[in-house]
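Summary of Year 1 activities. Much of the first year was spent building the evaluation harness for sequence design. The harness presents a backbone, in tokenized form, and records the residue chosen at every position. We chose the following record to illustrate the format because it has been used consistently in internal testing since the harness was completed.
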């Protein structure tokens, strides 16, 4: 069992603060857009407000899953709780999927049953303000995602970033509608739905990659690094899994065939672990199997559980 928390309190608190800050901004933008859209009859602005509201839901979910993810490993979760953050991304995907379907439905309904639309300069100001806030939030959250190596913040930043393109589309639509092109209200609404689907797909595929144990570090990169360490004759059966900010590694290393197990462990294996931890600070645990440097060992590339030795 890994006896330390995979996500430090300091990092978890930083992530939580980022989400609380962006939550306030997203709620303000969402309410502003929806109220303006309802008063003017602009469906695209209401849809844009709903999309911003999803950002708020995303922030709220994130605050809670990050709190859970910082819990230390225990008997029930010996690998820690870090993947709860990825589970949070999947929860966001559910909301994105529902929003996509509902907004497409509203757009089709508006095409079938056109509504009266009336708006003035204030509407343009509201959209311009929302664009400015969205750009700030997207850049801020994107930078924090890289700094804290957070899947959730990365996904949330992508979601917020899509708001920028959506709001620009809404602004263009307002201009066209002002000139009498009413059809652009449901058309822009449909474009917003496509942005939401794009955000859904990117978050979904990223979360699936983590949950299905996609490689975190390229195999060749690990092999090149480990074989450069003195005493390591070869390296194979390399696997890495987890999240960018908390991952695990399994490797087999070859040592001189005459070396004792004690010497191989204390002098080689332990040194490899220290080197890996220094090279990859987010590496939580490296399981290393020692093999003698001979032809039989070098030719083993798979697991005994897969009819070959891993």
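For this record, the design step produced the sequence shown next.
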């Amino acid at each position: 069992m890994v006896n330390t928390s995979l996500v430090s309190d300091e990092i978890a608190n930083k992530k939580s603060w980022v989400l609380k800050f962006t939550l306030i901004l997203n709620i303000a933008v969402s309410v502003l857009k929806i109220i303006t859209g309802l008063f003017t009859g602009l469906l695209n602005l209401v849809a844009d407000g709903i999309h911003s509201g999803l950002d708020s839901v995303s922030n709220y979910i994130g605050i809670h899953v990050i709190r859970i993810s910082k819990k230390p490993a225990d008997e029930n979760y010996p690998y820690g709780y870090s993947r709860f953050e990825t589970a949070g991304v999947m929860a966001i995907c559910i909301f994105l999927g529902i929003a996509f379907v509902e907004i497409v439905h509203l757009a089709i309904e508006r095409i079938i049953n056109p509504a009266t639309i009336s708006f003035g300069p204030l509407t343009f100001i509201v959209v311009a303000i929302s664009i400015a806030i969205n750009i700030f939030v997207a850049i801020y959250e994107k930078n924090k995602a890289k700094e804290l190596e957070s899947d959730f913040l990365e996904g949330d930043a992508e979601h917020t970033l899509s708001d920028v393109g959506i709001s620009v589309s809404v602004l263009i639509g307002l201009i066209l509608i002002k000139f009498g092109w009413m059809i652009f209200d449901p058309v822009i609404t449909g474009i917003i739905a496509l942005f939401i689907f794009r955000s859904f797909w990117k978050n979904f595929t990223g979360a699936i990659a983590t949950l299905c144990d996609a490689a975190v570090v390229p195999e060749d990169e690990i092999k090149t690094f480990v074989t450069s360490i003195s005493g390591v004759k070869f390296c194979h059966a390399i696997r890495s899994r987890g999240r960018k900010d908390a991952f695990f590694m399994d490797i087999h290393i070859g040592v001189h065939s005459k070396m004792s197990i004690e010497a191989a462990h204390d002098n080689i294996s332990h040194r490899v672990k220290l080197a890996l931890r220094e090279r990859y600070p987010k590496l939580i645990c490296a399981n290393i199997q020692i093999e003698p440097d001979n032809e039989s060992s070098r030719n083993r590339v798979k697991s005994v559980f897969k009819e070959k030795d891993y």
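The mean pLDDT is 82. Quantitative recovery figures across the full test set are reported in Table 2.
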